[in-house]
User: Fold this.
Amino acid sequence: MQSRPILRKALRSLAVAAAVASAFAGGVRAAADAPPHTVQDPHYGDGLFHFFQDRYFSSITSLMVSQHFERMPHHADEAEILRGGMLLSYGLHREAGEIFAKLIETGAKPAVRDRAWYFLAKIRYQRGFLAEAEDAMNRIENHLPPEFEEDRGLLKANMLMARGDFAGAAKALNAMATAKDASRYARFNLAVALIKSGDSLRGTAMLDELGRAPAANEESRSLRDKANVALGFTALQENRAENARTYLERVRLNGMQSNKALLGFGWAADALKQPRQALVPWTELAQRDVSDSAVLEARIAVPYAYAALGAYSQALQQYTDAIEVFDKESAGLDESIAAIRAGKFVEGLLESNPGDEMGWFWKIGSLPEMTHAGHLTQVLAQHEFQEAFKNLRDLQFLSRNLQDWKDKLGVFGDMLANRRNAYAERLPKVLEKARVIGIEALQKRRDDLAKEMARAQERQDGVAFANEKELDLLARIDSVQSILKQAGEDAEMNAARERARLASGALTWRLADQYAARLWDAQKGMKIIDTALDEARRRDAALAQAQKDEPARHEKYAQRIVELDKRIQALIPRVAALSKEQQQVVQEIAVAELTRQKERLAEYATQARFAVAQLYDRANPSRDADDAIKP
Assistant:
């Protein structure tokens, strides 16, 4: 079965489904097509930023912290969908299913609900949980985007074929594959389902149509080659060798299916009793990399064709060469198996493919230096190995992350110690300043001023609000008037007394004239004093409370650090043990594949040796007669 690789971009569509409300047609859609959406909560935006930077672990931890502190009120459902999508991407389908079910119960939009169940079904199927995948698929209604409908049909057919219900799969695919705009994948899968269900004639016709169709890109050409190879080997099984050659001739010589096509083309010629024609594809195939089982088979098929032509010496030489190649390859496989079991292969893969984050969509980009790197082709092609290696890499990331957290806890401990020291040093100084300032003394001064202002207001005494300069003038005028009273009576003194009286009156009049404004300013200043005193009392109370709370907070932080340190100290060896165990699993998967290659080599070597023995027997026809004559 074939399906388009849209999971990565489709997961992104799921993660921001409520926010963006856009789907990905066939896994590819321009970001500019998405409708505009405003992120109202910065913490949700932070989680999205990490997500679209492929830092999924940072994104999910950031979201969970923000959810804990209720920092995303405007995007609560969207954040939960994003979290569920990332859990789903890690294969945690049960946890993701619980999230989606909860969202559905609380009234999620039908489009979001169907999208959630679709991706949940997809992940469960890929993880091998067929019953759970079918349960999720059955919950999908009719609210998926149109571009998802074909993938939904392919997924449903995959599930049916996984259960062996090929007729049901063909029925599910029929309407979709016979539509005018049906994709090649739908038609290919329908053809396979028809052949498996017994309708070989119709299935073959569909594959033949695909095998002759023009292909505009590499993906289409690869599918066309696969259709022709399937047709060719089906024809060989049905003893239609001429048809098999027709189908296999369509396959490209440099494509992924070329080895199988060359091998099948040779057997088709052999079935037609044309060993000379069979030699052409088999000789070409025998020169290719022996890590492919088709190449191994070609190494003994070539001498088989020579023997059929009567060229026994060439056949014997070819069989002998094949045995040497098989023995050499078997020894190389032993070396590769030893290197894998020693950890060189897995450790080299980890070193060659570093990554700062966990990620379900992470791929192996480069291979380590190994003596027989060609042996790794079949190993790396295994889905089981890829998933197991991802789990190992994630465990390695968790191990580094735990160590990083452990180091940070040490820093937090130092920060807490510094904070305690600073608190112990500053508290006596603050208390001394508070004692010197004396809030009660300030309150008494304020009350005295209030009484004076009340008396002045009662008498409407403008002098009470005079400033220092005016008070100085008043004192000087009083002094002058006192001196003038003691002076004699003459015209000059009388004039001086008159000037002093006028000055006193002018000053008194000015103070009386500005009384109302100065009273208002004084009342305003009193309010400011009251506010400042209230703030001082509040801070004094906070200081008193802090003397009780701060040591308790320090102790709480210390206990929290100790608790987290214990948890991390317990997790570090656990993750290390799981990493070691997982590395063994990865290595055993690789060793199992190489062991299967050794078994194939041994089988081909046995066939070659048996063929050599037959050739020797054919070259010595009198041996049996001589044995019979002996007494």
Observations:
- Residues 515-619 form the longest helix (105 residues).
- The CA atoms of residues 398 and 404 lie 10 Å apart.
